[in-house]
Amino acid sequence: MQETGSPLSNSKSLPERREAVTDQQVLIVGGGHVGLSFALLLAHHGIASTLLEKNRYPTISPTDDRTRSHYLDSRNTALSRRTVQIYQEIGLWDELQSHACRIDSVQISEQGSFGRAQLNKVEEKVESFGQVIENAWLGRKLLLAAQQSPLITLIDNASVNAVAQQVDGVMLSFSNDDAAENEQQLQASVLVACDGRDSTVRQLLNIGTTTYDYQQTAIVGVVETDRPHEHVAIERFSPAGPLAVLPLTDPEGDGNDKYQHGYRRSVVWVCPTGEETKYLEDDAQFLQTLQQAFGQRAGTFVAAGRRGAYPLSRVLADKQVEGRCVIMGNAAHTLHPVAGQGFNLCMRDAHVLAQMMSAQVLKGEDIGNAQLLKRYEKARQTDQKRVIRFCDAVVHGFTHPNPAIKLARNMALLAFDKLPNIKPLVATYAMGLKS
Ligand SMILES: Cc1cc2nc3c(=O)[nH]c(=O)nc-3n(C[C@H](O)[C@H](O)[C@H](O)COP(=O)(O)OP(=O)(O)OC[C@H]3O[C@@H](n4cnc5c(N)ncnc54)[C@H](O)[C@@H]3O)c2cc1C
Asked: Right CATH number for 94-134+213-312+400-430 from 3.30.9.10, 2.10.260.10, 3.30.160.390, 3.40.50.970?
């Protein structure tokens, strides 16, 4: 089923812009999913950007549709309804959705407890709660769109050496092994750092961070079950940590066709750091652990693909604006993946900043103006703080071993399932439709 514009969205895809509406330029450092998406959002508004990426990008042919080198070997991201709307707005969703699987309902429960809750799209009167997309496909389509946009200049294999703030712009020095002249400089009205959790730009600007190590590691992979997923996302809390099993597409359709041994699902399993090796190396033990944690909620786990491990920490930049520079994406806030909120929050930041810059261009004003950037930082605070608090509350609330707290959270899950007014509100926030 295709994700179409919802009544909550008045966003429409506009014709793609081929020419810049201003001479002002944006410099983006970091071409991960956030940096590329931000460049495409700017291009949609007719604002040109130059994007510097540390790694070398692969060569992608527009006609080559291969996505999976291994069908069981991919990371996946749960996109909220709002993120889907943003991609619709810039005309990318039609390309993305062939490898995205919608979420019709969300089940939340705890191993060894009676409390459970369920969000259902029919009850909440929504088309879906979001979509699970393969990271490889998302990255590939974003890169291809950026490569094809006349308003985006991509420089890969480039590392940033220095950032200098000027009265009317910002100057960046970088090294690029591909260029004859190794050390190069670029100037722009504004610089947006999307260079990830350990952001070099953030360090060059002397912006500190508040960091918290969860002492947990996420094991991520694709599994197969003997039952179709029926578009259900299952969030389960076990004594080892939170666990999510998400629906995935199969190569032919929407995930309800059998693949090799069963039906593909994406797994995020969080365990205490130090215990990851046994879950990474031994397929049989991993499948057995999942089975114990889940019972038959997802059916029988029959196959597991290669898994990756991600040590989890929360990293929050002490500020997100310094002069003509903005810190965005994981460089601004790296969160626990428990509720699948990190990338979705980044996309809302990117969307708001692109809109504010576009409005500034229409007024004929400076897009790197300090007041504008500070207004952006302030405008995003409520949404960011709410998501950060929510993720932390879920992680700490559900891993606390105290029996009284365990009872309280079971009661809370039961109450959540029964109280009529809470579910729509939580669903709205989870879908990223309220900020
Ligand atoms: C296990 C796990 C599961 C997750 N699941 C979800 C989910 O379901 N939903 C969700 O919303 N979020 C999810 N997230 C969060 C999401 O992955 C991140 O929010 C998102 O990837 C951040 O993207 P980014 O582009 O900001 O950073 P990154 O992906 O880290 O990209 C940074 C880019 O900058 C480049 N770079 C770094 N340094 C430099 C430099 N000096 N110069 C130039 N380039 C540089 C890097 O090469 C990279 O390309 C999950 C996270 C994890 C760990």
From this structure: 3.30.9.10
